[in-house]
Design brief:
By secondary structure, the protein is an alpha/beta fold. The longest helix has 19 residues. It contains eight helices and twelve strands. Helix content is 35%, strand content 17%.
């Protein structure tokens, strides 16, 4: 919801923007997703906090603010979901609507129709409900581990599949596992996306990189107190402009393990 509020100039000092990353909202998640699942009761309490005087944005609206195409609202917050679980529609979407909170759901197109995941009709239904649909690649493989051609297929293929089904542009992308490098980010831009989310487990801000927007992973043990502090710009680092050395080292390790580079 965009409540009437005094807007902040894009050129003012950096203001933190909590971009929350959810996956599944369920009381009975599968074991593999349980560490990233919050219960419906807890999600309801999270939305109560988010809706209390904050202005929710989709990722594309956030990107417009980052580029200066739109003015910053007071107290912005962004809610995102990765992968495309069926409960995003069945449980989360009605709760978001009841609280008048916007959200972006990133769909892994190769997962569509699998057990516990959205089907194509559900993707369309989410879109019709006003939830922004973004692309999350096709097979959820870390793109910075892939040869360039395979990464391009993952990026462009997911965009084309979603756009064919929805009948309109899909403007935002989320990197599988949050992993990207400069080459992958260039390919996402070249594919026609206007923004992309990483993870980084840091607070985004008014000077953040729209091709690697920082997000905070919400887990079942994320307390209400912690969420309140995140919403206030506390208890999490502010995203740095450059990649940390340990990130580059971890990428090299992952590539060696894959045995591709």
């Amino acid at each position: 919801m965009m409540r009437s509020a005094t807007v902040r100039s894009h050129h003012e000092h950096k203001t933190t923007v909590p971009v929350l990353l959810y996956h599944s909202v369920s009381d009975a998640p599968a074991a593999e997703i349980a560490p990233y699942t919050v219960s419906p009761a807890m999600f309801e309490r999270h939305l109560d906090l988010v809706a209390r005087g904050r202005n929710s944005l989709t990722v594309s609206q956030l990107a417009d603010c980052l580029t200066g195409a739109a003015e910053w609202p007071a107290d912005p917050v962004v809610i995102t979901f990765d992968d495309g679980f069926a409960d995003n529609l069945e449980i989360a979407a009605p709760m978001l609507s009841a609280h008048d909170v916007r959200a972006t759901v990133y769909v892994t197109t190769g997962y569509v129709g699998r057990v516990a995941m959205v089907g194509w009709s559900q993707v369309t239904e989410l879109d019709a409900m006003g939830v922004e649909i973004g692309a999350h690649a096709h097979t959820h493989t870390p793109l910075d581990e892939l040869p360039p051609g395979e990464a391009i297929d993952e990026i462009r293929g997911s965009k084309e599949l979603l756009e064919d089904r929805l009948g309109h542009a899909v403007p935002s992308f989320a990197y599988p596992h949050g992993y990207s490098d400069a080459r992958v980010r260039r390919e996402v831009s070249a594919a026609g996306f206007r923004s992309a989310c990483g993870v980084r487990n840091a607070l985004s801000h008014t000077g953040d990189d729209r091709w690697n927007i920082a997000r905070l992973t919400v887990r079942p043990d994320t307390s209400l107190g912690m969420l309140e502090r995140w919403l206030s710009g506390q208890s999490a680092p502010v995203a740095r402009p450059h990649e940390a050395p340990k990130t580059r080292v971890w990428r090299a390790v992952r590539r060696l393990r894959r045995g591709r580079w």
